[in-house]
Amino acid sequence: MKQAEQLTLPLASPPDLTELFRRVFSRLRIKSPITSIDAQFHPFAGLRSTVSVRNGALRARVSDLLAEASPVVIEALAEILLARIFRRRPSREARECYLAYTFRPAIRTRIDAARRERGTKRLLPPRGRHHNLEEIFHDLNHRFFHGEIPPSRLGWSHQFASRILGHYDSGHATIMISRKLDSPSVPRYLVEYVVYHEMLHIRIPVERRGQRRVVHSREFREAEKKFPQYELACRQLKHMCA
Ligand SMILES: [Zn+2]
Questions:
Q1: Domain finish residue from 85, 117, 149
Q2: Which of 96, 125, 200, 241 sits at 20 to 30 Å (Cα–Cα) from 153?
Protein backbone atom coordinates (compact mmCIF):
# COMPACT_ATOMS: atom_id res chain seq x y z
CA MET A 1 0.00 0.00 0.00
CA LYS A 2 2.80 2.37 -0.87
CA GLN A 3 0.55 4.70 -2.80
CA ALA A 4 -2.01 5.06 -0.07
CA GLU A 5 0.74 5.89 2.37
CA GLN A 6 2.06 8.58 0.13
CA LEU A 7 -1.37 10.12 -0.20
CA THR A 8 -1.59 10.64 3.53
CA LEU A 9 1.57 12.71 3.58
CA PRO A 10 0.97 16.36 4.38
CA LEU A 11 0.77 18.51 1.28
CA ALA A 12 3.12 21.16 2.52
CA SER A 13 6.41 19.80 3.71
CA PRO A 14 6.68 19.99 7.49
CA PRO A 15 8.97 22.69 8.81
CA ASP A 16 12.52 21.93 9.87
CA LEU A 17 11.83 21.44 13.54
CA THR A 18 15.39 21.76 14.77
CA GLU A 19 15.73 25.07 12.98
CA LEU A 20 12.42 26.24 14.41
CA PHE A 21 13.41 25.32 17.97
CA ARG A 22 16.76 27.05 17.52
CA ARG A 23 14.96 30.19 16.41
CA VAL A 24 12.57 30.19 19.36
CA PHE A 25 15.40 29.36 21.75
CA SER A 26 17.37 32.43 20.74
CA ARG A 27 14.28 34.63 20.64
CA LEU A 28 13.57 33.73 24.28
CA ARG A 29 17.15 34.72 25.17
CA ILE A 30 17.61 31.68 27.34
CA LYS A 31 20.97 31.89 29.08
CA SER A 32 21.40 28.19 29.66
CA PRO A 33 24.49 26.71 27.96
CA ILE A 34 23.00 24.49 25.28
CA THR A 35 25.47 22.78 22.96
CA SER A 36 23.04 21.17 20.55
CA ILE A 37 19.37 21.10 19.64
CA ASP A 38 17.61 18.14 18.10
CA ALA A 39 13.89 18.39 17.44
CA GLN A 40 11.81 15.88 15.52
CA PHE A 41 8.25 14.81 14.97
CA HIS A 42 7.29 11.62 16.74
CA PRO A 43 4.22 9.37 16.34
CA PHE A 44 2.93 9.64 19.89
CA ALA A 45 -0.47 8.08 20.58
CA GLY A 46 -2.00 11.49 21.22
CA LEU A 47 -1.11 15.14 21.06
CA ARG A 48 1.95 14.71 23.21
CA SER A 49 5.25 16.49 23.02
CA THR A 50 8.32 16.14 25.18
CA VAL A 51 11.51 18.06 25.77
CA SER A 52 14.61 17.22 27.76
CA VAL A 53 18.12 18.52 28.32
CA ARG A 54 20.96 16.15 28.99
CA ASN A 55 24.61 17.21 29.14
CA GLY A 56 23.79 20.42 27.32
CA ALA A 57 21.96 18.63 24.52
CA LEU A 58 18.36 19.68 24.06
CA ARG A 59 16.05 17.05 22.60
CA ALA A 60 12.44 17.70 21.63
CA ARG A 61 9.86 15.29 20.29
CA VAL A 62 6.73 16.86 18.91
CA SER A 63 3.55 14.94 18.11
CA ASP A 64 3.45 14.29 14.38
CA LEU A 65 -0.21 15.26 14.46
CA LEU A 66 1.20 18.78 14.36
CA ALA A 67 3.22 18.21 11.20
CA GLU A 68 0.55 19.96 9.16
CA ALA A 69 -0.04 22.79 11.59
CA SER A 70 1.14 26.23 10.58
CA PRO A 71 4.65 27.13 11.78
CA VAL A 72 3.10 29.76 14.04
CA VAL A 73 1.37 27.01 16.02
CA ILE A 74 4.50 24.90 16.24
CA GLU A 75 6.53 27.92 17.32
CA ALA A 76 3.98 28.55 20.03
CA LEU A 77 4.37 24.96 21.22
CA ALA A 78 8.16 25.24 21.06
CA GLU A 79 7.95 28.31 23.27
CA ILE A 80 5.72 26.47 25.75
CA LEU A 81 8.07 23.47 25.87
CA LEU A 82 11.22 25.57 26.21
CA ALA A 83 9.59 27.74 28.85
CA ARG A 84 8.62 24.63 30.76
CA ILE A 85 12.08 23.11 30.84
CA PHE A 86 13.85 26.39 31.60
CA ARG A 87 11.31 27.35 34.23
CA ARG A 88 9.90 30.39 32.57
CA ARG A 89 6.42 31.56 31.77
CA PRO A 90 5.41 31.16 28.16
CA SER A 91 3.78 34.25 26.68
CA ARG A 92 0.03 34.49 26.67
CA GLU A 93 0.04 34.66 22.88
CA ALA A 94 1.87 31.34 22.67
CA ARG A 95 -0.45 29.63 25.09
CA GLU A 96 -3.58 30.94 23.42
CA CYS A 97 -2.34 30.17 19.94
CA TYR A 98 -1.53 26.56 20.79
CA LEU A 99 -4.67 26.01 22.82
CA ALA A 100 -6.90 27.41 20.09
CA TYR A 101 -5.31 25.03 17.62
CA THR A 102 -5.77 21.97 19.79
CA PHE A 103 -9.44 22.79 20.32
CA ARG A 104 -10.28 22.90 16.62
CA PRO A 105 -12.82 20.16 15.85
CA ALA A 106 -10.84 18.85 12.90
CA ILE A 107 -7.78 18.46 15.09
CA ARG A 108 -9.74 16.77 17.89
CA THR A 109 -11.01 14.25 15.35
CA ARG A 110 -7.49 13.46 14.24
CA ILE A 111 -6.23 13.18 17.79
CA ASP A 112 -9.01 10.72 18.64
CA ALA A 113 -8.33 8.67 15.53
CA ALA A 114 -4.61 8.52 16.32
CA ARG A 115 -5.33 7.52 19.90
CA ARG A 116 -7.60 4.73 18.78
CA GLU A 117 -5.23 3.49 16.16
CA ARG A 118 -1.96 3.83 18.04
CA GLY A 119 -3.32 3.35 21.53
CA THR A 120 -4.49 -0.18 20.78
CA LYS A 121 -0.95 -1.26 20.02
CA ARG A 122 0.06 -0.29 23.49
CA LEU A 123 -2.01 -3.01 25.07
CA LEU A 124 -0.93 -6.60 25.51
CA PRO A 125 -3.59 -9.32 25.26
CA PRO A 126 -5.75 -9.88 28.38
CA ARG A 127 -4.51 -13.40 28.88
CA GLY A 128 -1.30 -12.79 30.80
CA ARG A 129 1.33 -15.25 31.92
CA HIS A 130 -0.23 -15.67 35.33
CA HIS A 131 -3.57 -13.88 35.36
CA ASN A 132 -6.32 -13.70 32.80
CA LEU A 133 -7.97 -10.28 32.83
CA GLU A 134 -10.93 -11.36 30.74
CA GLU A 135 -11.78 -14.13 33.13
CA ILE A 136 -11.37 -11.81 36.11
CA PHE A 137 -13.56 -9.16 34.48
CA HIS A 138 -16.41 -11.59 33.78
CA ASP A 139 -16.17 -13.09 37.21
CA LEU A 140 -16.31 -9.67 38.91
CA ASN A 141 -19.10 -8.55 36.63
CA HIS A 142 -21.25 -11.43 37.86
CA ARG A 143 -20.24 -11.23 41.48
CA PHE A 144 -20.66 -7.49 41.97
CA PHE A 145 -22.45 -5.90 39.03
CA HIS A 146 -25.21 -8.38 38.02
CA GLY A 147 -23.33 -8.75 34.76
CA GLU A 148 -24.31 -5.19 33.83
CA ILE A 149 -20.92 -3.72 33.03
CA PRO A 150 -20.69 -3.58 29.24
CA PRO A 151 -17.87 -5.58 27.71
CA SER A 152 -14.72 -3.50 27.61
CA ARG A 153 -11.38 -3.91 25.95
CA LEU A 154 -8.94 -5.31 28.46
CA GLY A 155 -5.20 -5.63 28.35
CA TRP A 156 -1.91 -5.52 30.14
CA SER A 157 0.40 -2.54 29.79
CA HIS A 158 3.67 -2.94 27.94
CA GLN A 159 5.57 -1.31 30.72
CA PHE A 160 6.00 -2.54 34.26
CA ALA A 161 4.51 0.62 35.69
CA SER A 162 4.31 0.61 39.44
CA ARG A 163 2.78 4.02 40.01
CA ILE A 164 -0.25 3.50 37.82
CA LEU A 165 -1.53 0.00 38.38
CA GLY A 166 -4.70 0.39 36.38
CA HIS A 167 -6.32 2.82 34.05
CA TYR A 168 -9.74 3.18 32.50
CA ASP A 169 -9.95 5.09 29.25
CA SER A 170 -13.59 6.09 28.82
CA GLY A 171 -13.01 7.31 25.26
CA HIS A 172 -12.34 3.77 24.13
CA ALA A 173 -13.93 1.77 26.92
CA THR A 174 -10.57 0.22 27.65
CA ILE A 175 -9.16 -1.06 30.91
CA MET A 176 -5.41 -1.31 31.11
CA ILE A 177 -3.70 -3.09 34.00
CA SER A 178 -0.02 -2.73 34.80
CA ARG A 179 1.98 -5.75 33.77
CA LYS A 180 3.67 -5.54 37.11
CA LEU A 181 0.64 -7.34 38.52
CA ASP A 182 0.94 -10.26 36.11
CA SER A 183 3.27 -12.12 38.39
CA PRO A 184 3.14 -15.38 40.37
CA SER A 185 3.87 -13.40 43.52
CA VAL A 186 0.72 -11.33 43.07
CA PRO A 187 -2.37 -13.11 44.41
CA ARG A 188 -5.43 -13.12 42.19
CA TYR A 189 -7.54 -11.00 44.53
CA LEU A 190 -5.05 -8.15 44.15
CA VAL A 191 -5.49 -8.12 40.39
CA GLU A 192 -9.24 -8.47 40.98
CA TYR A 193 -9.23 -5.44 43.21
CA VAL A 194 -7.48 -3.24 40.61
CA VAL A 195 -9.85 -4.45 37.86
CA TYR A 196 -12.79 -3.90 40.23
CA HIS A 197 -11.63 -0.32 40.81
CA GLU A 198 -11.49 0.33 37.07
CA MET A 199 -14.91 -1.26 36.58
CA LEU A 200 -16.31 1.15 39.16
CA HIS A 201 -15.12 3.95 36.89
CA ILE A 202 -17.43 2.54 34.24
CA ARG A 203 -20.32 2.26 36.68
CA ILE A 204 -19.97 5.53 38.61
CA PRO A 205 -19.76 8.68 36.52
CA VAL A 206 -17.34 11.51 37.24
CA GLU A 207 -18.87 14.09 39.55
CA ARG A 208 -18.72 17.77 38.88
CA ARG A 209 -17.94 20.05 41.79
CA GLY A 210 -17.70 23.58 40.48
CA GLN A 211 -14.74 23.62 38.12
CA ARG A 212 -13.39 20.36 39.45
CA ARG A 213 -13.96 16.86 38.21
CA VAL A 214 -14.21 14.42 41.07
CA VAL A 215 -13.22 11.01 39.78
CA HIS A 216 -13.17 9.19 43.11
CA SER A 217 -16.34 10.58 44.64
CA ARG A 218 -17.73 9.56 48.00
CA GLU A 219 -20.07 7.15 46.23
CA PHE A 220 -17.06 5.65 44.49
CA ARG A 221 -15.12 5.24 47.72
CA GLU A 222 -18.07 3.57 49.39
CA ALA A 223 -18.52 1.16 46.50
CA GLU A 224 -14.83 0.29 46.65
CA LYS A 225 -15.18 -0.90 50.22
CA LYS A 226 -17.63 -3.58 49.08
CA PHE A 227 -14.72 -5.54 47.70
CA PRO A 228 -14.20 -8.34 50.27
CA GLN A 229 -10.43 -7.99 50.69
CA TYR A 230 -10.54 -4.21 50.35
CA GLU A 231 -8.29 -3.27 53.26
CA LEU A 232 -5.80 -6.03 52.71
CA ALA A 233 -5.58 -5.19 49.01
CA CYS A 234 -5.05 -1.48 49.71
CA ARG A 235 -2.25 -2.23 52.16
CA GLN A 236 -0.51 -4.60 49.79
CA LEU A 237 -0.79 -2.27 46.82
CA LYS A 238 0.62 0.59 48.84
CA HIS A 239 3.48 -1.64 49.82
CA MET A 240 4.05 -2.63 46.19
CA CYS A 241 4.04 0.96 44.97
CA ALA A 242 6.41 2.19 47.67
ZN1 LIG B 1 -9.46 5.40 39.90
A1: 117
A2: 241
DSSP E strands in 111-222: the ranges are 123-124, 153-157, 166-169, 174-177, 207-209, 212-214
Residue 215 Cα to ligand 1 middle (Å): 7
Query: How many independent structural domains does the chain possess?
Result: 2
Task: Determine the Cα–Cα distance for residues 161 and 18; give it in Å rounded to an integer.
Answer: 32
Question: What's the gap in Å between 219 CA and the centre of ligand 1?
Answer: 12
Q: Which of 117, 149, 173 is the last residue of a domain?
A: 117
- How far apart are the CA of 11 and the centre of ligand 1, in A? 42
Is residue 75 a part of any domain in this protein? yes
- d(CA 130, ligand 1 centre) in Å: 23
- The tens digit of pLDDT for each residue in 79-124 reads 999 999 999 999 999 999 999 998 888 888 888 888 777 765 578 9
State the pTM of this model: 0.55
pLDDT tens profile 161-216? 667 799 888 767 889 999 999 999 999 999 999 999 999 999 998 887 876 778 89
Q: Domain of 226?
A: 125-241
| Centroid of ligand 1 to alpha carbon of 220 (angstroms) | 9
